[in-house]
Design a protein that fits this description.
Recoverin, domain 1; two-stranded antiparallel ribbon
Length: 199
Amino acid sequence: FPSDGGDAELELSAVRHQPEGLERLLARTKFTKKELQSLYRGFKSECPSGLVDEETFKLIYSQFFPQGDASTYAHFLFDAFDADHNGALCFQDFVIGLSVLLRGTVHQKLKWAFNLYDINKDGYITKEEMLEIMKSIYDMMGRCTHPTLQDSAPAEHVELFFQKMDRNGDGVVTFEEFLETCQKDEDIMSSMQIFENMI
């Protein structure tokens, strides 16, 4: 029966999308076995194929921010989760990113945030990149912020952030500069906490 061959192939591809061995994920994340199992169940019920493409990710994410347009921020977030940049999130990508954001050290969280801001992944954050991310956050928050934010707010925000971070004034922020500034600056550290609330 030719259909048997098809079924066998389907099973094989399903196996390929299985998460890494539980033991390896236990070693690479700060979740317990129980937590990993319940995260996996949730992931599989939302994504039966075991993979999330960017469109699905945007749909899921936009449900949390009905008052704004979350699609651009979700795009940047998707890129930050998609560690191997293959255009789809598997359970492993998702759970490793989540572990850093929820249970990681300050250094790990800041590394993750830096990677989010570094849109082209060249190891530097430019003012333009920072502005893109800021605008996407303001868009996502929508008009629900009180008082209503001016359109110039993201640019002003970035100007202040960037001046603080670009310590040698060369027009780009390295991870070292980012790390040093964030750890010394209470305001920035508290605004980093918003990442945890946005995930």
